[in-house]
Please model this.
Amino acid sequence: MRTDELDFDLPESLIATTPATPRDSSRLLVVSISDPDRLEDRVFSDLPGLLSPDDLLVFNRSSVMPARFRGSNVETGGAVEGLYLHDAPGSGGEGTGDERPMWVAYVKTKRPRVGRRAGLVDADGNPTQIVVEFVEPYPSEGPGAWVLGVDGGGGMGSSEILNSVGGTPLPPYILSQRKARDEHIDDASDRDAYQTMYADLDDPGSVAAPTAGLHFTDRVMSGLSDRGVSTSEVVLHVGAGTFKPIDAERLEDHDMHSERCSMGSALGLFEGGKPDKGRVFAVGSTSARTLESFAGVQESGGNVGDAIDTRILISPGYDWRWVDGMVTNFHLPRSTLIAMVASMLDVPGTVNGIERIREIYAHAIHNEYRFFSYGDAMLILP
Model:
């Protein structure tokens, strides 16, 4: 499959820089796998009435870390910006005794080199005692990734340090559009807005939000319960590679990123395979990747109770095992996320998923839906 088939032109004015208020007032475009002509413009608060009793919604309960950090070169004063990805292999990240936390992070700065040090500021720009040292490049995470030694934490672990110096890891397209529109929003507001209502704050691990879940509110959850719709949760810690554009000319040649996932509270429902009652809806691509990854584990005779690192790439031609439908946002062009949605809409011999997703996105653009992380949503019905 050619990567340019996943491309589209989007007016920058449709890139959402803030979420809808309230969250469930975002728009919802309803489509159907079995009815290719269905394009229904609704509001997200309508979701419960669009589902059937005994349907199951599966959420990703991973919470977002304040993973973005800023500072300046200790020697030159030059700006340093970074995104924490995870602790370096072999580093416990505890910062106890003589051991300092070691981070793997994407870093943007002029002429980075081993031994350089940068003092970090907090989310409001105030100086802190935290200093990072460039230890070595980390090419397995791609260009710009480094191992950083973290000093000045006074025994704090990585999570505590990030809570003191980190900012909300908003995607670059939101930050650039805010700058272009001269919008100024404080980090405390984003830290609340860029977190799902059901996120487990005791289990941080994501450097990007599972954004399809941002639309849910207490009102929607109550409506689902009243409707007889069940809910459950998996865990996938979202990595920066989720939104990475595909650089290869063909999708099959893309180096798919790895993300850690487990079945969470959904384990009891899927231990014996797909539930035989109702339809399964994944809330977002991360929930879909988790469920389909563990469907593969089960088919191969593995234990679905174990946590795994998944590199599953879902594209047209994929045979969906456990997921019947999806709640999802509108995704970046040339991304694996669009390929996944096109795969769900693909009906061999009847509907070309790529052509279908082009029609759906053209409708959304024409009707000025808001796109990407803080944007509107789509419901894919079986």
